[in-house]
Design a protein that fits this description.
This protein is an alpha/beta fold and 430 residues long. It contains 16 helices and 14 strands. Helix 5 crosses helix 6.
Length: 430
C-alpha cells in the first residue's frame, strides 16, 4: 500500500457507482485505485481474440502513450502470462521477476511496478484485466493492496456485466421492433365515442394491437420502440393505418390518435394528415408524455391545427403533467382520466374535480370527454355534470373496423324517420 495513503482504502463512492453508467463508473474506479496505489497508469482491458484492448484508461499526462481503443497482442503484454501462472498478479518491482524482466513489453513501456487481476463475469468467463502500472518501483505494494484490487475488479465485473446485458437487451428489442415494422404485426381497433346528450356516435379512438408471440400490451411495444430509436416509426405506422379508415366512415365521424410529442415535432404527423380532412382528426397527448420543449411542440401543433386538426390532452386528472399540457397547449378536447370517472357518482372529491374541469372547459371553449365509463350510473352522473362526450366499456368496447361500420349502419337506420301510419276511418272499420 502507498505510504501516503490511509490504512483503510476509501472506495470513494464506488459502491454507489453501480447506479451510474458503466463507462463513468469505470473511470471513477480506475482513478480511485490509481491514486490510492500511487501508480501512473490504471486501465481496464478487454480480451478480443488474441489481443488485449484498452477499454478504459486513467493515465493523466501519459495519454499519448496509452489511450482507450489501443490494443496489443496478448503474448506481448502481461495478461495471458498472469492468467496462465507464468507471472504473479503483484510485482512491486518487475525487474525482480526474471520472466517479466526479459519481456520486451517491460522495456518498451518502461514498467517497474505492476499489479493486475482478472475481471471475471457472472458466467465465469474472463472479460479482461484490471491493471495498474508504475514507472518506478513500488516496494510498499502488498497482499492487502492486491485484495483491494480484486474487490474493485469484482465491482468492475458487475458494471461490465450490466452493460453487456443492456447491450444485448437493446439489440434484442431493436430486432423485435424491426420485425413488427417489417412483418406488419400492428393492427388497429377502434373504440366508440358518444355524445352524451343524445347518445349519438361522433367518433372513434384508434387503438393499436400487436399480433406477436410475446403477448405484450401496446404500451410496452411503444415504450420499447422509443428506447431503441424507432418510436416515431412505430407510432406513424399506427397513425397511417388509422387514417386509412377515414374513408370507410361517414364524414361526421372523427378519429383520435395517441401520438408522442417527439412524433409531432418530427413533422411526420403533419405530412401524414396532408390531403386528409383535418376536421375529422384529433391528436392526443397523454399525461405520461414528457415534453421537454413546449415551444417546439406548440409550433408543430400549429402546423396541423391550421388545417382543422384538433388537439386532445389525455388522462386529465391523473397527475400534474396533464395540467401542464392543458395550460401550455390550450387543447380543443380535455379527456377525463378513468381514475376520475370511476364511481364518480359516489365520490365527492372526484365529482368536485370533474366539475371544476367542466367549468374550465366552458371558460376555455374546450370540449370535455370522459374516459373509462363503465356503468349507467357513471354515465348519468357525467351527463348531469355537463360532460359532452364519453367512451368506455359501458358505451362500447374496442372493436375491429368491420364491426364499427356495422355499428354506424345500425345508428343510421335507427335515426331514419319512421313513416306515419294512416289512421283507419270509421267507415273502413265497419
Amino acid at each position: 500500500m502507498s505510504a501516503t495513503e490511509p490504512d483503510i482504502f476509501d472506495l470513494k463512492g464506488l459502491t454507489t457507482a453501480l447506479d451510474d453508467k458503466a463507462e463513468y463508473s469505470l473511470r471513477r474506479a480506475l482513478e480511485a485505485v490509481r491514486v490510492h496505489l500511487g501508480m501512473q497508469v490504471a486501465y481496464v482491458s478487454e480480451f478480443v481474440g488474441d489481443r488485449s484492448y484498452f477499454r478504459e484508461v486513467d493515465a493523466p499526462g501519459l495519454e499519448h502513450v496509452i489511450k482507450p481503443g489501443d490494443s496489443m497482442p496478448l503474448d506481448y503484454v502481461y495478461c495471458r502470462h498472469i492468467l496462465e501462472g507464468r507471472l504473479p498478479e503483484l510485482m512491486p518491482d518487475v525487474l525482480d521477476v526474471p520472466f517479466a524482466a526479459a519481456m520486451p513489453f517491460t522495456h518498451d513501456m518502461g514498467i517497474r511496478a505492476h499489479m493486475s487481476v482478472p475481471i471475471k463475469l457472472q458466467d465465469g468467463t474472463t472479460h479482461g484485466m484490471f491493471c495498474c502500472i508504475s514507472t518506478e518501483p513500488q516496494p510498499s505494494l502488498n497482499m492487502r493492496d492486491l485484495k483491494m484490487m480484486r474487490a474493485v475488479a469484482e465491482l468492475t465485473a458487475v458494471l461490465i456485466g450490466r452493460e453487456i446485458d443492456a447491450t444485448t437487451e437493446h439489440r434484442t428489442n431493436l430486432e423485435r421492433i424491426q420485425r413488427v415494422l417489417a412483418s406488419d404485426e400492428l393492427s388497429i381497433v377502434v373504440q366508440p365515442i358518444y355524445r352524451i346528450a343524445d347518445h349519438r356516435l361522433v367518433g372513434f379512438e384508434c387503438l393499436s394491437r400487436f399480433a406477436s408471440p410475446e403477448g405484450w400490451t401496446p404500451d410496452i411495444w411503444f415504450t420499447m420502440a422509443a428506447s431503441v430509436g424507432l418510436g416515431i416509426e412505430l407510432e406513424m405506422m399506427a397513425v397511417q393505418k388509422g387514417l386509412a379508415l377515414l374513408d370507410l366512415f361517414p364524414k361526421d365521424i372523427y378519429l383520435t390518435f395517441n401520438v408522442s410529442p417527439e412524433t409531432i415535432i418530427s413533422g411526420a404527423v403533419a405530412e401524414a394528415i396532408a390531403g386528409k380532412d383535418g376536421r375529422r382528426v384529433v391528436v392526443e397527448i397523454t399525461e405520461h408524455a414528457s415534453v421537454s420543449d413546449y415551444e417546439a411542440l406548440g409550433r408543430a401543433l400549429n402546423d396541423i391545427r391550421v388545417n382543422g386538426v384538433r388537439l386532445a390532452v389525455d388522462d386529465a386528472g391523473a397527475g400534474y403533467a396533464s395540467l401542464r399540457h392543458i395550460l401550455a397547449l390550450q387543447p380543443d378536447i380535455i379527456k377525463l382520466d378513468i381514475s376520475l370517472t370511476r364511481n364518480i357518482q359516489d365520490d365527492l372529491a372526484r365529482h368536485a374535480l370533474a366539475a371544476a374541469l367542466v367549468h374550465f372547459g366552458r371558460e376555455t371553449k374546450s370540449q370535455i370527454l370522459a374516459e373509462g365509463v363503465e356503468s349507467a350510473v357513471e354515465f348519468e352522473a357525467l351527463r348531469k355534470l355537463g360532460v359532452e362526450t364519453a367512451q368506455g366499456y359501458f358505451i362500447g368496447r374496442p372493436m375491429p373496423c368491420a364491426d364499427a361500420c356495422l355499428l354506424i349502419a345500425q345508428q343510421q337506420i335507427a335515426a331514419r324517420p319512421r313513416p306515419k301510419l294512416a289512421t283507419p276511418s270509421v267507415k273502413a272499420a265497419m
